[in-house]
Amino acid sequence: MTEHNPRAKPGPAKPPQTGDIELGLLSGYIGYHLRLAQNASFRAFQSKSGRDDLRPGWFAVLSLIGDNPGIAPMALSRAAGRDKSTLTPILRDLAKHGYVVSSPRPGDRRSYGLSLTELGRERFTELAAHAKAHDRVLDEIAGDQKDDLIRILKRIAEELA
Q1: How far apart are CA 129 and CA 135, in angstroms?
Q2: pTM, entire model
Q3: Of 79, 95, 113, 133, which is the most exposed, with the fewest CB atoms less than 10 Å away?
């Protein structure tokens, strides 16, 4: 029997072992397979990084902040495709680890801007190297269908936004 650690953060779910399970409608649902692919991708990425303090979902957020110093959380939310309820805990964790700082935005007292700290830039560089290696694996899987896959995923994101 394994011990339950209430403070441990759950990772992405493992793919279902469908040997004895009838998937029924799910077998033909794109959304279901998108989620399985995302979970598998996140697990592989996390495994490659070998760090518990760098989560795969942080990569896009750190990248967008790094490329847009002073970005407002709302703009970050839109660019990362996350709503406020999922972005806020990520920003809190990134700040707690010392990767991101917030500062007042000139001319807008109701908002603040986000920037990477030096440690945040170091961790992003580390994550970027893992992301590049991980993307090479995904490129191999997609093969000559990569451009079509990206085009379809972009279309899904745009039309469902």
Answers
A1: 10
A2: 0.77
A3: 133
